[in-house]
Every structure is written in structure tokens, then in C-alpha cells.
Amino acid sequence: MQFNGFSDWVYPDAPEDPCFLSNGKCVFQCIAHEGLQYLYSNNKVILDFFKKNKVAFTSVPCRSIPKLDF
Q1: Does residue 36 contact residue 22 with C-beta atoms inside 8 Å?
Q2: For a Cys-Cys bond, which of 4, 28, 30, 70 suits 20, CB 3.0-4.6 Å?
């Protein structure tokens, strides 16, 4: 299934708030119903991918990565 943007990822058709992890750390977080996307990475590959695919995001300093304890 394809979407026009992360804000379209709404339950029950898709996971509402996707979060992507790399090496156990959050690199991208989305709050779909609010249209908010946060990027917690300065990785050039990720930045270039987002820009190429016109993914809207707010860049957040890496020291502000949310802690995900389960």
C-alpha cells in the first residue's frame, strides 16, 4: 500500500504513528493525526532520501532522541 505522506498513516488502515529505529535508537518519529514528523539523525543518506522523496520533517538535535523503554 502506498501513501502520499506520513500524515495519511491512520489506524485502522495503517499504523497511525510510525517510528523508525536504527541500531536501537529512534531516527524518525511521526504523529500522523497532527501531521508532525521528526528526524533525529544527521545521516546524509537518510537526509538525502527524505529530500529526494519530499518527506516533510522537523530536524531535531540528536541529543533530543526520545527514550524508548519497553
Answers
A1: no
A2: 28
